[in-house]
Amino acid sequence: MVLGGVIDFVVLLGKLLFLSVWEPIKWLLPKQRKDVSNEIVLITGGGMGMGRLMALEFAQLKATVVIWDVNRDAMNGVVQEIKDQGNSAVFSYVVDVSKNNQVYAAADKVRRDVGDVSILVNNAGLVNAPNFLNVPDERIELLMDVNATSHMWTLKAFLPAMLAKDHGHITTIASSAGLIGVSGMLDYCASKFGAVGLHESVTMEIASLGKTGVKTTLVCPYFVKTGMFEGAASRIDWLITQLTPEYASGRIVDAIRTNCKMLVMPRIIYAFIVLKAIIPTESALLISKYTGMASAMRKFVGRTGKAK
Q1: Among 5, 65, 137, 190, which residue carries the largest CB count within 10 Å?
Q2: Are the C-beta atoms of 173 and 125 separated by less than 8 Å?
Q3: Are 60 and 52 in contact (CB under 8 A)?
Q4: How many CB atoms lie within 10 A of CB 100?
């Protein structure tokens, strides 16, 4: 019994050593990009921002695109853009992803109208004003529901078919604020930490079932210039560059096509993640103050263009 445990432990160490050598090598090798022309891609929050750009890019790659959004006019505009490109395989549904009954009803319609979704992009998101104590409770509840809880409803709706076929891809658009807490973003960070934890758990669950054909990608970007974080800025924007939506959406689609497990943008955020794990809390607070992240949301106005 003891000998068997020792052997298992030695085998584990050997596998970990192999992976520690192989993974960096694999990162340097040319990446194969999977063909998505036969895939059905569903993007929540696909009516604007990165959701719109991802929908357009997947359409250019000849995928069948399904857009969910609460804004019918914005969504219809994206559908028309895709059709103007010469792609007719696009479908749209008005869905409030914070409502599980709407998610399940719309998922049934998608299955009837289009088929089983094979690439799910949980992209819909909200952000509130910086002063958490003054934000109405219903706004906080809505933010949590859209940014995190809704992922459970979409997973329950679409993951079973992926598991049955051992084919599919789950993508979670989280945030670097789901890895490192930021002042002025208390409810947003809580929701994105939840989305990251949910994603990590479902990745483990899929692996435990032996479903190697169902892939997952976690996306954690810094501020993206979609207007959602209009006005937010730090003292080191020269070092940690705010991302253009075109760049971010292109990287995300490429990450999905290369089965990338985790995409953090820009890469320098990895350094802050490591620092967070090894330095004392007081040091982290000092860095936050120096970099301006402690006051990054002070001039936040969001998409409305008005101070909140």
Answers
A1: 65
A2: yes
A3: no
A4: 17
Q: Looking at 93, 188, 247, 290, which residue is catalytic?
A: 188
Question: Is 290 considered catalytic here?
Answer: no
pLDDT in tens, 9-44: 676 677 767 666 666 676 666 778 999 999 999 999
- Identify the pLDDT of residue 290: 66
How does pLDDT run across 47-88, given as a tens digit for each residue? 999 999 999 999 999 999 999 999 999 999 999 999 998 888
